[in-house]
Amino acid sequence: MEEIAFGCDHAGHSLKAAIVEILQARGFKVLDFGTSSADLVDYPDFASRVCESILNQQAVQGVLICGTGIGMSIAANRYKGIRAALCTSVQQTELARRHNDANVLCLGARITDNETAIACLTTFLSTPFEGERHAVRIAKLDV
Ligand code: RB5
Question: Labelling 98: which of 9, 89, 123, 140 has CA 20 to 30 A away?
Fold first, then answer.
């Protein structure tokens, strides 16, 4: 079973806890890098743990949650080989997988309700990359 890495800051910890529980109940293996409380932390510290776990092949995909999802997506996309997509809808998430082969889903806990976030995550984990012309474009990202 392939592992899914999770990270969040204080703004995202409740949403992370909710979706980690759902994924574990569905039989997914979760690598939870925290944080796990409302105590203030800095989102780049958690983005780095999730991105490094993907780059060193501990995890296949990751989920990063902060208040808006913006800080996490900025932080994650600084890592070569990470394609982080900040999604607020199922349609965006589906296209982030099909066209962009996104390997990190970023969510904004203060923007996106739990139900939508879970629907996005379900789509993220189940949608394949289409390859072909999109693979050519993705190859141009990591130069
Ligand atoms: C924390 O207050 C907030 O700035 C952070 O969660 C995130 O939204 C940053 O992009």
Answer: 9
**pTM for this one?**
0.97
Q: How many Å is the Cα radius of gyration of the chain? A: 14
Q: How far is the CA of 8 from the centre of ligand 1 (A)?
A: 10
Which atom, in ligand 1's list, is nearest to the CA of 74?
A: 10
Over the chain (143 residues), the average pLDDT of each successive run of 10 is: 94 98 96 98 98 98 98 98 98 98 98 98 98 96 87
Q: Is the CB of 6 under 6 A from ligand 1?
A: no
Atom of ligand 1 nearest to the CA of 72: 10
Give the C-alpha separation, 130 to 134, whole Å.
Answer: 7
